[in-house]
UniProtKB/TrEMBL annotation:
Lineage start: Bacteria, Bacillati, Bacillota, Bacilli, Bacillales
Protein name according to UniProt: histidine kinase
EC numbers on record: 2.7.13.3
Species annotation: Alkalihalophilus pseudofirmus (strain ATCC BAA-2126 / JCM 17055 / OF4)
Gene name of this polypeptide: yycF2
Keywords assigned: ATP-binding, Cell membrane, Kinase, Membrane, Nucleotide-binding, Phosphoprotein, Transferase, Transmembrane, Transmembrane helix, Two-component regulatory system
Record-linked Pfam families: HAMP, HATPase_c, HisKA
Region forming the signal peptide: none
GO molecular function terms attached to this record: ATP binding; phosphorelay sensor kinase activity
Domain Histidine kinase: from-to ranges: 153-368
Domain HAMP: 93-145
Amino acid sequence: MFLKKLIKAKKDRAKHSLSIIIPITLLNSGILIIFLLISSYLIYSTACFLVARLPTVQEEKQMIFNDQLALFLFILLPSTILTGIVLHYWVTKKMFKPFHELIEHTQALKEGRFPPEIRARSYREINQLTHTFNDLTERLKYNEKSRDQMLTNMAHDLRTPLSNINGYLEAMKDGVIKGDKDIFSSLHKESDRLIHMINQLQEMSKWNEITSHTLLEKYNLEIQSVLHESLSLFELTLKNKKISLLTEIDPCTVSINKEGIQQALTNLMQNAIQYYEGTSPISVKGEKCGGYYQISITNPGLPLTEKDQVSLFERFYRVDTARNQKTGGTGLGLAIVKEIVVTQHKGEVFIESTNNHHTFFLHLPLNH
Ligand SMILES: Nc1ncnc2c1ncn2[C@@H]1O[C@H](COP(=O)(O)OP(=O)(O)OP(=O)(O)O)[C@@H](O)[C@H]1O
Ligand SMILES: [Mg+2]
């Protein structure tokens, strides 16, 4: 109750407080008036003094001159002051117009609406401010859209394995089916999918958290051993799936965050295996190319459209194929790779794709 009253009082005070234009106009008008009064007095006394010293001017004419000049200044002074005040108020109001627009737009944002873009102004500082505000609005809009998209995708992706588990459990509870090895292994697979999704989400929020606050610590490391260490984790899976792996990794010292690069390589290798379609081997190459070290991973796979290739690195983007719907996934793997390589290592990630071979490239800048 007390808090509500306090907020209301604050709001009322804000509503009834003076616009900044009024004190600025009053201050400048005061300075203008003082300045004009002093200069008028100086003009009057100097002119009268000079006229009095002229030998040809009689006293009577001198009096007339003095009166005329006083009358002239008496009329001129208030009209100049008035014009000055009006002009000042008008110019200041015009200058402050973008701020009023900004206030209205910020208010709209606070209420959850997205205001239209504020148009550019001719003053540099105001221009920078409106530009930054427009960017901020765009960013918020994008974040809200991705959040909605994420919730929709998550709900969809979580529902499928959960309904499967639920369906089986219900049927077993009602005695419609009896649990056997196949059913348990199917349930186990579904729960694995759920765990994977949750792990990916955790991973994404971990990297998001890190990238929004700090830069990861990097050390000069021999990249060849870092990459081989990550690849060794896939030996068993590759053997089970009868996929051969070709590696051609040149040694080079690169300034990297080891955990980050290994996570990126793991995500790319998981994809290469998960979306493997064909008979040729998966190949991993590492070589120095000018100012950067290039890592590339190639696998045979189903064709990817132009749109897919552009959007793959966006969060929650998944290629819409029947097979993908079955395998499940969060569409976060490549977004995590991008976050690590681009944001943290100031590198590049991109894909080159022929009809049925896809190569994912990582460029890590060499600092020497
Ligand atoms: N090596 C690849 N070959 C063919 N398609 C790929 C490859 N890597 C990624 N894709 C496509 O890009 C999409 C996005 O991949 P990404 O790794 O970001 O998400 P995901 O694999 O669907 O889910 P997860 O978050 O579990 O990794 C995938 O759905 C897949 O269709
Ligand atoms: Mg993936």
